[in-house]
Amino acid sequence: MKKQVFIxxxxxxxxxxxxxxxxxxxxxxxxxxxxxxxxxxFDFDDIENIKNKPLFYLAKSFGLIASKADxxxxxxxxxxxxxxxxxxxxxxxxxxxxxxxxx
Length: 103
Description:
Oligomer: single chain
Strand content: 5-15%
Distance between the termini: 30 Å
Order of helices and strands: EHEHEHE
Radius of gyration: 13 Å
Structural class: alpha/beta
Shape: globular
Number of helices: 3
């Protein structure tokens, strides 16, 4: 069974196309190692009734990390992104392996 990797990346203020473009190199690199990338770009539609959208998406990310991820790959800039920092802290606290995009 292939290892499954979650990609954590800054998303605030970006379109889905920009988010996908920013992660493409990481996806290719992860897949070249024989791993599967978990789809962590959640549906951007039908969220008008959500009171705290960033927290809603963070909860979905935590659920995916907890249920399926064998590791989390952090893209450049994660240290400045509120959600990425929380994901990183949780991974460290709960022993989920972390990997980093190199400069």
